[in-house]
Amino acid sequence: MPRKILTGETVLAAARRRISWLFDQVELGHIKQIICSISGGKDSTVLAHLALVEANRRNRRVGLFFLDEEAMYQSTIEQVEYMMQLYPENTTPLWLQVPFTLTNATSVSEAELQAWAPGESARWMRKKRNAPGTIKHKPWPEAQERFRSGCKRLDFYGVIQNFERCYDHTAWLVGLRAKGESLNRWRAVVDHPVTIGGQQVYWGSKRGSNWTLYPVFDWDVSDVWRYIHDEKLQYHKVYDHMHKKGVYPTQMRISSLIHERAFKSIADLPEFEPKTYERLLKRIKGIALAQETGKAAKMLKCTKLPKAHKTWAAYRNFLLATHLDQARRPIFEARFAAQLQNEYVARQQCRQLVLNDYENNLPIDNKPDPWQVHRESLLAYYEGVM
Q1: How far apart are the C-alpha atoms of 152 and 117, rounded to whole Å?
Q2: For the chain, what is the radius of gyration of the CA atoms?
Q3: pLDDT category, 1, cuts 50, 70, 90?
Q4: Are the C-beta atoms of residues 285 and 107 closer than 8 Å to each other?
Q5: Are residues 214 and 345 in the same domain?
């Protein structure tokens, strides 16, 4: 487990100190500029506000970068607009609306969405933004465009990486929190310390000539909401809808509506944002089915075995044999062949097939079946007693 050191400093004071120190490094010439990535969610809202307040105090500017995925809540767009207008004299807006590919977990026949597809403006969820700071064409040369390892087309992370390469010696602030989240997320934040201006920074990592930094990594979800309340900040409206639906605060996520980790949001979308749902229905296939079955145990959640199959392994084999996308079926077959053959793993494999997760965005926990291990240990115990 990571070692925790209690300093007596509040997380808010620590975040302000870190951000102030980053602005010091800009003034000393160790960092050229500071850009904060925002998503419209609560964490990036808090981080951006902290950075803007410090920029305002010093009469400097900070970049606010937003990658527009097209298939998003209208409330996300409204929240990002709000953040970019909060301190206009201290903000450099960077609203990126360029074509790239998003995986679609709601359909096998249309497994991808080409966001902002050229020549298809009539089908877009909405028109491109017409305001200063909007970037409607790739700012990097096509000949120098790079794809992520193992990826053959420009995806979400590929866009971010190519955009970041347009800058050098830049501090990219990300509202990633590790406290209260998974241990792997904590390790991702603190395991690769970097050096800036001769000082070691444990809450960041190096990427090329730039740095990715996480000033609020040690905040809890309650710290985030307390800050929003105390500073009287506007926040994403869908959080209120989620609260009314009984979603636990740590489970509230604001992101694309169609990828593997967010498709369940479509089930409530007609109630939250009916106009967004109508536009999404016309934009891409599988939305109506996802809306009806997004929370069903036997469908997209894949937590209850259909009656027609006696085991998860049998259900997995059925899904493989009937998979509609023959080009991607071998991807699943090769991946599954290298994994353990038990019911625990097979259920996760079924989920990947149902969601068409050929990119492995929901990695399988490839280990012995915990229930089987527990059962065998109990049997061994009772045999020893008797």
Answers
A1: 17
A2: 23
A3: very low
A4: yes
A5: no
| CA distance linking residue 361 with residue 135, whole number of Å | 28
- Burial state string for 127-149 with b = 16 or more CB within 10 A and e = fewer than 16: eebeeebebeebebeeeeeeebe
pLDDT tens sequence across 184-240: 656 666 667 899 999 999 999 998 899 999 999 999 999 999 999 999 999 999 999
Total-model pTM: 0.84
**Confidence band (pLDDT; 50, 70, 90) for 139?**
very high
Beta partners for residue 170, in sequence order: 33
Mean residue pLDDT across the chain: 89
Q: Could you tell me the residue range of the domain that residue 50 belongs to?
A: 11-230
- Give yes or no for residue 134 having a pLDDT over 70: yes
CATH code of the domain covering residue 208 = 3.40.50
User: What angle, rounded to 10 degrees, do the helices at 221-230 and 11-28 form?
Assistant: 80
Rounded distance between C-alpha atoms, residue 70 and residue 92, angstroms = 21
Assess if residue 333 is contained within a domain.
yes
- The label of the residue with tokens 């089915």 reads 289
Residues 27 and 118 in one domain: yes
> In the chain, what is the greatest distance between 2 CA atoms, to the nearest angstrom?
78
Strands (E), the chain: 33-37, 62-67, 91-96, 100-103, 112-115, 134-135, 170-173, 194-196, 199-201, 204-207, 210-213
Q: What is the pLDDT of residues 2-40, one digit of tens each?
A: 455 667 899 999 999 999 999 999 999 999 999 999 999
User: Per the structure block, which two tokens stand in for 214?
Assistant: 């996480």
DSSP character at residue 144:
G
What's the residue count for the chain? 386
List the Cα angle 126/128/134 in 5-degree steps: 145
Residue type, 154: L
Spatial contact of 228 and 235, defined as CB atoms under 8 Å apart: yes
How many folded domains does the chain comprise?
2
CA distance 323 to 342: 21
